[in-house]
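TASK: fixed-backbone design
INPUT:
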């Protein structure tokens, strides 16, 4: 996950450098007064890739006993409320709906019904972010963003009386995160378009242990926390 985030960061920074070179000549400014508004609104569409960081009770667990996590691309959609604090700072609320799936493969089993758990999640995601921008360069403005968030997992199974013995992997309903990212505002003729990349990291343990403390599925898990990458495209 860290390597993927680094690669995306390098590509994004390279794109920003090319964009700055392309726009370094004086050009007609689009939406000149857009950033002077106290409040602005918009929406976003995007993609996500969720992972789990798993800590084990047995610190000597190796690759042969680790739980394997297979990621898949998910989809994001949401709204944006932006409050201008000054020329360089904006406070943003970005509530959204996030769909994702992670497949967990547990060691020590031979049958798919035992070793495979498809963890499908639908999150109501509520981030509060501080956006720190550079000075506008003609029709572009790079920025970094960070903040905290919380989510409600509508597919958590937390209250389900069945556990992995019956094929049900359970997760907590609520999770808290911190988020870090960066992006570029492009001021087009009719609207502002913003591609951005953001990493999200859970602060709390999300797995619900099986009823059996020696469960072969959850007995060795100390903490399971979400990590993820969001690529969003914003329209304001």
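OUTPUT:
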């Amino acid at each position: 996950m860290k390597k993927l985030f680094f690669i995306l960061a390098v590509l994004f920074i390279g794109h920003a450098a090319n964009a700055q070179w392309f726009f370094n000549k004086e050009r007609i400014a689009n939406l000149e007064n857009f950033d002077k508004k106290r409040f602005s609104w918009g929406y976003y569409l995007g993609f996500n890739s969720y992972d789990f960081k798993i800590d084990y009770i047995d610190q000597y667990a190796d690759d042969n006993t680790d739980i394997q996590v297979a990621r898949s691309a998910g989809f994001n959609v949401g709204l944006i409320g932006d409050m201008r604090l000054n020329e360089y700072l904006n406070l943003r609320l970005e509530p959204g709906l996030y769909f994702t799936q992670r497949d967990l493969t547990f060691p020590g089993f031979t049958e798919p019904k035992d070793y495979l758990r498809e963890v499908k999640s639908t999150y109501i995601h509520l981030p509060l972010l501080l956006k720190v921008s550079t000075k506008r360069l003609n029709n572009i403005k790079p920025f970094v963003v960070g903040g905290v968030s919380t989510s409600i997992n509508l597919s958590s199974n937390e209250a389900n009386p069945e556990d992995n013995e019956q094929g049900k992997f359970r997760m907590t309903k609520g999770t808290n995160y911190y988020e870090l990212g960066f992006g570029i505002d492009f001021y087009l003729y009719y609207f502002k378009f913003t591609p951005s990349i953001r990493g999200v990291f859970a602060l709390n343990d999300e797995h619900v242990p099986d009823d059996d403390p020696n469960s072969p599925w959850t007995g060795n898990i100390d903490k399971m926390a979400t990590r993820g990458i969001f690529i969003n495209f914003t329209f304001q």
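COMMENT: Residues 19-23 have pLDDT under 50 and may be disordered.
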